[in-house]
Specification:
This protein is of the alpha+beta class. It has 2 domains: 190 residues, 2-Layer Sandwich (Fructose-1,6-Bisphosphatase, Chain A, domain 1), CATH 3.30.540; 127 residues, D-Maltodextrin-Binding Protein, domain 2. Helices cover 30% and strands 23% of the residues. Helix 6 packs across helix 9. The radius of gyration is 19 Å and the shape is globular. The structure holds 6-O-phosphono-alpha-D-fructofuranose (P6P). The site of 6-O-phosphono-alpha-D-fructofuranose (P6P) has 9 residues, from helix 7.
């Protein structure tokens, strides 16, 4: 039996694809790999150990913080601090960025932004959740503490991005700008194995993902696009299928493999949309564009947007390029 390529082997074999490859990014990805395995273990036993449910406090987003949210945040924070490549981390679970100010880390050149456990409201009902991460080079000189400026970079400046989906199997999918590759955790040996080499999203698809419970709050163009998806048209394979898990990573991952579009538009309930630009939209936009897809805020590429604050929200239309384009046409036609 041919031994599958492990994530560790893949990182080393492909580090020359990354400009200025000095092995530091490889070490950084290795720390993320380790943290993903630890979080996977905690998620898999969550139903057995009293770590389900909220811990009685809210996170920066004002959302009830689930115990696993905190465990995931602390696990990734610890793993990233343990390696000398990172000088600071921003997280959905932290109000401000965390600066690693000791001598070793202040010489580090990478920063990481992450959503350590996205979709955590699904934890107690055993629906898949995910981790999303985004890696940049710092813009300020090494040797001084990292600053907010280092974190407020447009998505086009990312050097790597990825996600872990803790689903029926646990997968880590990432890009360093030379395509997208997926690795499935073999729990019998605790190793991520290359299972989805060179991933590409289908140019179009028959799945649309949106929380239709917010329909009445959507812009008219979004409402009309949803109706378009639901109309019968044999030639274009409509009506499309509506699939919405309520876990961004899971909805995104399904669409990446099968083709589809995920929408989180503006609405009176979410005047700027709900998804976070820095640690949800930008990393997934990097991945989807590397896989041949599109990611916009309804007008502009997500990765062109200049962030102004850590936790800012943006509308998000992401997935198969032809489906994103069709959604755009409706937005333009009914622009309010
Ligand atoms: P709604 C989870 O909180 C999340 O950020 C994404 O994982 C998910 O796609 C979205 O919010 C669900 O939001 O408003 O539809 O419940």
């Amino acid at each position: 039996m041919v031994q599958p390529t492990t994530l560790g082997e893949f990182i080393v074999e492909n580090q020359q694809d990354f400009p200025y490859a000095t092995g530091e990014l490889s070490h950084l990805l290795t720390s993320i790999r380790l943290a993903a395995k630890v979080v996977n273990r905690e998620i898999n036993k969550a139903g057995l150990v009293d770590i389900l449910g909220a811990i009685g406090r809210d996170n920066i987003q004002g959302e009830a913080q689930q115990k696993l949210d905190v465990i995931a945040n602390d696990t990734f924070m610890r793993a990233l601090r343990s390696m000398g490549q990172v000088c600071g981390v921003a997280s959905e679970e932290e109000e401000y960025f965390v600066s690693f100010d000791d001598d070793i880390h202040s010489e580090a050149k990478y920063i990481v932004l992450m959503d350590p456990l996205d979709g955590s409201s699904n934890i107690d009902v055993n629906v898949s959740v995910g981790t999303i991460f985004s890696i940049y080079r710092r813009t300020t000189p090494v040797g001084i503490p990292v600053t907010l400026e280092d974190f407020l970079q447009p998505g086009d400046a990312q050097v790597a991005a990825g996600y872990v989906v803790y689903g029926s199997s646990t997968m880590l999918v990432y890009t360093t700008g030379s395509g997208v590759n997926g690795f499935t955790l073999d729990p019998s040996i605790g190793v991520f194995c290359l299972s989805h080499p060179n991933m590409h999203i289908p140019e179009t698809g028959k799945i649309y993902s949106v929380n239709e419970g917010n329909y009445v709050h959507f812009p008219e163009g979004v409402k009309q696009y949803i109706k378009y998806c639901q109309e019968y048209d044999e030639a274009s394979g409509r009506p499309y299928t509506s699939r919405y898990i309520g876990s961004l990573v899971s909805d995104f991952h399904r669409n990446l493999i099968k083709g589809g579009v995920y929408l989180y538009p503006t609405g009176t309930m979410a005047p700027k949309g709900k998804l976070r630009l820095l640690y949800e939209c930008n990393p997934l936009a990097f991945i989807v564009e590397q896989a041949g897809g599109s990611a916009t805020d309804g007008k502009r590429r997500i990765m062109e947007l200049q962030p102004s604050e850590l936790h800012e929200r943006v509308p998000c239309f992401i997935g198969s390029p032809k489906m994103v384009d069709t959604a755009h046409a409706f937005l333009r036609k009914y622009e309010e």
